[in-house]
């Protein structure tokens, strides 16, 4: 029987690599009767979704634009880079 | 050739810039990343018609952003950015000797309501900034830049066990920080 400490470790690891069949079975068994670890698993999911949302909010914010002077610098850099060859 | 760059920047420059800014959080670095993307795109025009130009450019940008992280990592002493002592024992703050939670995790959810949601996200962002540097680097690579575990281990020259212990500790700290600053008991 897994302890909560071991179960929480497996929950975190499952975000990084697939668990073995045996680990998965043990974890499922633990989660069937442990509310605390279920909440922990949900917390990690909320973290993930939240971090994606933070990025998506910036990606979709049409008020943020590549500044014109930055654009000019990039075009100039590409031009000079090509002349150098 | 630089006509291409003009077109690319006109059509996709804003998006690429925002994509970079969302991950680098720094306008200068974001500009650098877009510039590197344009240089690479023009040098090695590998665009194939079966994807959109934006997808192609975004793919290059992703690599450039990870390259920039690599460079940053190499410029710092390893002991500053990796916690090689991270082990099972360092989780004693969270569990008692028999492996039970000392403080049971509380439930929280991302709010649907726009204003509340943006408050929640700014608490999350602040918590992430507060992570100890030794955990933050690997956490950013994995959960923000979504780099594969295998590549992270290669990059930081650590074992998979080191990696998961550090990620575990980072996530553990982060969700605790959210409990304390968002749920407010
Ligand atoms: Zn448990």
The count of strands of chain B amounts to 0
Helix content, binned percent of chain B? 55-70%
Please trace the helix and strand order of chain B, writing H or E for each element: HHHHHHHH
Distance linking N and C termini of chain B? 60 Å
Strand content of chain A: under 5%
Q: What would you call the quaternary organization?
A: heterodimer
Uncertain residue segments of chain A: none
Count of individual helical segments of chain B: 8
The CATH homologous superfamily of the largest domain in chain B is called Winged helix-like DNA-binding domain superfamily/Winged helix DNA-binding domain
Alpha-carbon Rg of chain A, integer: 23 Å
Summarize this entry quickly.
Chain A is mainly α and 85 residues long. Chain A is 75% helix and 0% strand.
Summary keywords:
heterodimer; A: 85 residues; mainly alpha; elongated; B: 185 residues; Rna Polymerase Sigma Factor, Chain: A; Arc Repressor Mutant, subunit A; 8 helices; binds zinc ion
Description:
The complex is a heterodimer of chains A (85) and B (185). By secondary structure, chain A is mostly helical. Chain A has one domain. Chain A contains four helices and no strands. In chain A, helix 1 (4-13) crosses helix 2 and helix 1 runs parallel beside helix 3 (35-59). Chain B is mainly α and 185 residues long. The model of chain B has no long low-confidence stretch (mean pLDDT 88). Bound molecules: zinc ion (ZN). Zinc ion binds at residues 4, 7, 30, 34, 36-37 of chain A.
Write the layout of secondary structure elements.
The complex is a heterodimer of chains A (85) and B (185).
Chain A: H1 4-13, H2 21-33, H3 35-59, H4 68-83
Helix pairs in contact in A: 1-2, 1-3
Chain B: H1 2-24, H2 27-43, H3 53-74, H4 78-81, H5 114-129, H6 133-144, H7 149-156, H8 160-183
The structure holds zinc ion.
């Amino acid at each position: 029987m897994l302890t909560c400490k071991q179960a929480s470790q497996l929950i975190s690891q499952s975000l990084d690599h697939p668990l073995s069949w045996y680990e998965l079975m043990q974890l499922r068994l633990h989660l069937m009767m442990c509310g605390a670890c279920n909440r922990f698993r949900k917390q990690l999911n909320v973290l993930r979704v939240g971090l994606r949302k933070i990025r998506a909010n910036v990606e979709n914010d049409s008020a943020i634009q590549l500044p014109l002077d930055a654009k000019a610098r990039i075009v100039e850099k590409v031009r000079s880079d090509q002349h150098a060859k | 050739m630089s006509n291409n760059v003009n077109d690319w920047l006109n059509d996709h420059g804003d998006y690429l810039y925002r994509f970079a800014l969302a991950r680098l959080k720094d306008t200068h670095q974001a500009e650098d990343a877009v510039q590197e993307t344009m240089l690479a795109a023009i040098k090695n025009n590998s665009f194939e018609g079966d994807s959109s130009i934006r997808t192609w450019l975004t793919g290059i940008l992703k690599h450039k952003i990870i390259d920039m992280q690599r460079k940053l990592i190499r410029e710092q002493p390893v002991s500053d950015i990796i916690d090689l002592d991270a082990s099972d024992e360092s989780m004693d703050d969270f569990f008692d000797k028999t492996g039970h939670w000392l403080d049971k995790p509380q439930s929280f959810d991302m709010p649907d309501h726009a204003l509340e949601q943006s408050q929640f996200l700014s608490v999350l962002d602040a918590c992430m900034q507060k992570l100890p540097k030794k955990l933050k680097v690997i956490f950013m690579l994995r959960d923000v830049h979504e780099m594969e575990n295998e590549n992270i281990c290669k990059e930081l020259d650590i074992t998979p066990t080191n990696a998961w212990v550090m990620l575990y500790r980072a996530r553990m700290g982060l969700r605790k920080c959210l409990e304390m600053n968002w749920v407010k008991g």
